[in-house]
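Might I ask for a little of your time on a matter of protein folding? Here, with my thanks, is the record as I have it:
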Amino acid sequence: MTEIEMGKLAETKATNPAVKNFGKMMVVHHTEIAAQLKMIAAEDKIELPTALDEKHQKKVSELAAMSGPAFDKAYMDDMVKAHDKTVRLFNEASETSSNGQLKKFALAILPKIQAHLEEAKAIQKNLKG
């Protein structure tokens, strides 16, 4: 949910076209991923959060207060950090989850998240010049 909300911000606030496009991609891809995860959770009768927790809402609010190149840099720094963590979590889930459906989901989504990480790193590098 955090990446979707931050992506929406990037679509409107980013000054760099690559950052703006990355934000748009985050909204589309992570909305699709969230829908798939919701289906798995519903089948297993697991309730997922419907809103951001305080920590993540604070991140979104802090980012929303930024503009210009500072926004672009902060957004991409966060996207690299978040996707690095997500890749590690999905790797772990794909290897150790006892839930077969969740394990299959993690394996299927992992390449997309790894691609997001690589693209985020490339944009981050270009922003640094």
